[in-house]
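Cross-posted from the bioinformatics board.
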Amino acid sequence: MFAVENGLQGDPRLQAISDAIRVIPHFPKTGIMFQDITTLLLDPVAFKHVVDIFVDRYKHMNISLVAGVEARGFIFGPPIALAIGAKFIPLRKPGKLPGKVISEEYELEYGNDRLEMSMEAVKSQERALVIDDLVATGGTLSASINLLERAGAEVVECACVVGLPKFKGQCKLKGKPLYVLVEPSQLEEITF
Amino acid sequence: MSGNKQDEDPRINGIKTKIRVVPDFPKKGIMFQDITTVLLDPKAFKDTIDLFVERYRDKNISVVAGIEARGFIFGPPIALAIGAKFVPLRKPKKLPGETIFEEYELEYGNDRLEMHVGAVEAGDRALVVDDLIATGGTLCAAINLLERVGAEVVECACVIELPELKGRQRLKGKPLCMLVEYR
């Protein structure tokens, strides 16, 4: 579900956010129009809009845990967690987290990758939000949902700044709702 | 802050007690300073950010540069609170578009830190943020990147310092602000 479909139609902040995202053609490879959010981070007003919109949505949903996917989820997750009084949990590439971890494999275009979470970070029945900068195939977010559910948390929603148009409407990932602020700002097909 | 015990803010002890030390990670002999346990305590995490924001809000900082990946956790909340841009300093090949890089030494071999061309401008007043300073190699590379584009590095800010590794002396004369020492 996109923000415009859920009460924010015409909200000028969404246009400002979209305008602040830079598109880099053919990165990391030919055919991919990379949505670069670093230019959004250079615009303190637009960056704050992103955080404010997510905080307004989640502050009364009793979220106790915000999980951010390495590495760009680390940029958006913590400000939201701080504002809503939730803990922040980093979901990381293999071998980065110390102590006991659980891991979940997910598919890439070629081969697999793995996401890890600290086993001790989550208490049973916590209400969790998953954050990343962008959703494309949904593979990383699905792995994140799996990790949190295996640890006993309830994933309330996944939230991303940018999402492909296919995530409009009541689209769900592993049965969980997805909330996205903006579509990619160029209309060329993104292939993954 | 900065190890001046007489002035120590009462919030600092609360943060210190939340840091988990994990022995022999990532390899034998290293006492790993795990800040993820601070992030699990909303008050301790908020106090960490507040302490830095209080220090920097009136210093006219226009850029907060955070070092991948744990600098991405602490840098953005500080940047948002003080109205500065946030610039990620990243491992090689992660940033799209045009970048500049700085090499730095590891225990075995070298690594590189990259920054986007155009993100930081001449005259920007910059703060560099990471979770921890050890040898200072990464922070020194960060300072170099920022100075090469004409920014003035005002200070480096870290949650934790390992003073025995003397990283403070590798910061090209720039001051370091830290909250917690580990000896």
